[in-house]
Amino acid sequence: MPPDEPLVVCRNAALTFGRGPQAVVAVHGAELEIGPGDRLAVVGPSGSGKSSLLHLLAGLEQPTTGTVRRAASLGPYDIGLVFQGDSLIPALSVAENTALPLVLAGRPEDEARQAALAALALVDAADLADRLPEEISGGQAQRVAAARVLAQAPRLILADEPTGRLDHTTGARVLDALLTAADHTGAALVVTTHDPAIAARLTARRTMRDGRLLAPEGVS
Ligand SMILES: Nc1ncnc2c1ncn2[C@@H]1O[C@H](COP(=O)(O)OP(=O)(O)O)[C@@H](O)[C@H]1O
Ligand SMILES: [Mg+2]
């Protein structure tokens, strides 16, 4: 594979929920390429289609029209999605939740646990390792969700408002961890946010408004 081959390419990709008069067009004809090492913020208010776009990129949703093409070399474990909200499994400890993608990918449990603990340390959550999700706060759970993706070391990190429920300091720390992890592994990073201060920390920014992904700044 050529090193600069895009990881994901959206061409005129649209996503509609429902049919007929009830249909909601969550994403209108999006044009977007994510290349290796990209650092992209998708900025927009609530309801503008950011999560829907991220789910299209991840392959969780298929475009209603248009295409979303992922590089053939990009396997399912090469994509790490930090869901909006934290989506931890209640019966598993924080360390087990963090190690889960690695265990599912077939890594030995010891090794998976070590990688999980290292990732938890990156988001200042090492002390939470043996707690259950119900024993930690929403903000802590959001950090654990970020650690789970860091442990997986995917080639494409898609983080859906990873700092949404965190104060500025903790939010900046989680973003630092995502940026550091992406730098270490050369992963591409796409972060949705409605916070301009968070968006400013990524290399590129695209705005979503009413389901439309606007052209890059300075390009008409
Ligand atoms: N599963 C769904 N079914 C129906 N409508 C949905 C669904 N998911 C999102 N939507 C609608 O799509 C639009 C975009 O939502 P979303 O992608 O969640 O935006 P954001 O992440 O920017 O808040 C909203 O109008 C939302 O109500
Ligand atoms: Mg959302």
TrEMBL record:
Gene3D superfamilies: P-loop containing nucleotide triphosphate hydrolases. SUPFAM superfamilies: P-loop containing nucleoside triphosphate hydrolases. One of its GO terms (molecular function) is ATP hydrolysis activity. InterPro entries: AAA+_ATPase (IPR003593), ABC_transporter-like_ATP-bd (IPR003439), ABC_transpr_LolD-like (IPR015854), P-loop_NTPase (IPR027417). PROSITE patterns: ABC_TRANSPORTER_2. Keywords: ATP-binding, Nucleotide-binding. Coiled coil: none annotated. It comes from the Bacteria. GO terms for cellular component: plasma membrane. Residues 10-219 form the ABC transporter domain. This is ABC transporter ATP-binding protein. It comes from Streptomyces cellostaticus.
